Amino acid sequence: MNVTLSTLLLVEDDPNDVMLFRRAKDKSNLANPLQVMQDGEAAVAYLSGQGQYADRNRYPLPALVLLDLKLPRKSGLEVLEWLRRQPGLQRLPVVVLTSSKESLDVGRAYDLGANSYLIKPVAFDKLLEMVKVLGLYWLILNEKPDIHLSRGE
Hints:
Number of strands: 5
Keywords: Phosphoprotein
CATH superfamily: Response regulator
Pfam families: Response_reg
Radius of gyration: 15 Å
InterPro entries: CheY-like_superfamily, Sig_transdc_resp-reg_receiver, TCS_response_regulator
Domain Response regulatory: 7-135
Strand content: 5-15%
CATH topology: Rossmann fold
Organism: Sulfuriferula plumbiphila
């Protein structure tokens, strides 16, 4: 049995949001490693193990993807749609973490298979609370599906 902590993948292009998330993660004592991709194409490359992300020891499949919607190069919705079509990855838990409260975005995200849709809190204490709950629920309490993808699939 693997005793290493499961990796989180944060797909976020705003450096301030990344910094605040890292701070909240550290302050909440969430010890899981964090990988950050700053655009949708990088997220797809990471998840598919392409190019520099081929080494799964260095770039393991995440236990949870935290996905912004408004991303350069490929939107969060495009990443989600791609992910749900990938054998071996389609069950990977994805939490949309975005500033969009648009009902069309919410509906589209769920239609494409998002497991949850959260609005980024403005206040740091609310973000900290959200990160604690995310860690508890998705990384400890939630029963995870088997996820595996060999290169070339």
